[in-house]
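This section describes the prediction task in plain terms. A model, or a person checking by hand, is given the sequence of a single protein chain and must write out its three-dimensional structure as a string of tokens. No templates, partner chains or ligands are provided. The sample shown here is typical of the held-out split.
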Amino acid sequence: MKRIISILVLCLLVSSCKTEEKQTVKRDGYYISGTAPGVYNGIRAYLETTDDRGRKIAKDTAIVMNEKFVFEGKVDYPEMLYLKINSVKGSKPLILENEEIKVTINKDDINNSTIEGSAANAALNSYNEKANELSSKRFEMGKQLRSARPKDNNPNAVGQNSEMTEINQKMKDFPFEFIKENSDNPFSIILLKQLADSKEADYDRIESALNSLSDEQQTSIAATMLKTQLHIKKVEQAAVGATEIGQVAPPFSAPTPDGKMLSLNDVKGKLTLIDFWASWCKPCRRENPNVVKVYNKYHNKGLEIISVSLDGSRTQKDPKAAWIKAIEDDKLTWSHVSNLGYFNDPVAKAYNIRSIPATFLLDQDGKIVAKNLRGDALEKKVAEYLN
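The expected answer:
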């Protein structure tokens, strides 16, 4: 009898140890266990991301069975996705990371669902709650301002305007304050990326906030990717500023069709047109006869042109041959250069060229006096300076 009891005790101890061991095992990937009360069997659930064009793409898919579903896999770094379930209204933001996450679905509105088990998702929920509070305050203040126009001689209007300015500033500062308080949370990097992608991004402030994160977060893959993104965006921003009207055009040198180097300074006249184009660009080719007409009419009066070709796309078998042929076919008798690097051409990057045709008109001092002129508008502007 004693022997049987000893065996039972030993089995319980072993079982207990195994249970404890199972509880402390850290998953190598993500495991999302979802509960979906009232959602029918066979309904699909998705973890969606957004591509560069803003389209939704399913990163992972699961099927609801017995009001439950599971997503399982592995990610290289935490990222913001959206949980969507067919037949359920809306989509729920969720940070996917290599952790166990529990989701309870509200079938009437997925945004009212709960997400537990992840520090990043907890930070996301907290951030959204506080941001919504500020948005609500601004909305209410906007209503008050609209009902208290200065024309009504309401003495409270000026004060309310001041309060609105204060709320707007708080909303602008809030993300950075939140990041400062959550410097060791991976959600902070995701939030910084969202700020970097916004139209009014303050890249210096974002970079400073990124550098203030914990060592663990700063050395993460996501942080490294964001640092690269910020560098590219700051270079692009500098290029935009350098090519505004009134600025001296950035200098450059590039190979001519015969392989010699030609610089912008070698070409400058009383008036100089920098023309970005390519043999494959149909709008460019349609505009070329007009540029030829303007050049032939005003070249003797001081107009010079230097065309920068963005030939070199992967679809071109022989980009240099196509470039030279287009010059001959369109009778473009002025100066030509190209690195045959498509939109990665260093000259195109220096001028922040995103689409072609693109033109910059320079005065005799090299200052940009007009941009992207075509048709009659180009000739009228040239005539202003040379007639």
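For orientation: Confidence is low (pLDDT under 50) at residues 4-25.
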